[in-house]
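Morning F.,

Quick status update on the modeling queue. The single chain you submitted on Monday has been processed. Sequence for confirmation:
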Amino acid sequence: MRDINVLGLLVFYGLAAGVQFGLRHGGLDFYDRMDWPFLQMCAVSALLFGGSVAVAAFVSWFIFGPQNRTSSLFGTKPLLAVLMAIVPIIVVAVLGYENDFGMNPHLAGAAMAGLLVLYALGEEIGWRGYMNDALSPAPYIVRGSLIGAAWWAWHFWFLDEGSTMQEQLQLLAILTATSFLFISIIGMSRSWLSVAAFHSVANIGMLAGAFEGPTNKRLLMGGITLVILIAIHSFWQRGVKKAASF
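Structure tokens below.
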């Protein structure tokens, strides 16, 4: 049986969580010091928050080696992976993102959705890429639970003023259930881009605080994106099963 590199996991999570804490609650106070234009702030946030998880993964890979690595940016079907990544961008661009920073709604939609996909990709390189691969010797139920808990704790929502135990338990349950789903997706595709595309649906439809606008429109954007992604994923999955049958 393959070994789990516990030290590698600790280094990865320590880096990812340390940067996140510093930006949200530590001395850096990132959001309190941001007086940049809105789109510029979103771009830097995507690079720092999502990117910090990816950097932590690559540092751990560099120091400790592959650690059971089987996933990559494009996975088993590069063209389908890229297609999945651009679907959210196209959908939001077509429907338009009404904004108060003076940009054409369709261009703003493409920019905002692109940043959300980039942010999600940074996270997924770490959670479902690095961490899922590193924990691959463990059973599916263990991987999903550990990654879900780590993902929830990384956000440090429990430190927010007014946070309640009930809210945190709900968020933990949601992220853990989502983690199981995303593990299944990347287990088939082996692609960080494919799971990042699904991750961006939640950011567009419900969760991303920076992605403002009418709730119904955001849910419509997320819903259309999700339907298209499921169709592509199903096609990809059929191709994998067909190849395995030969």
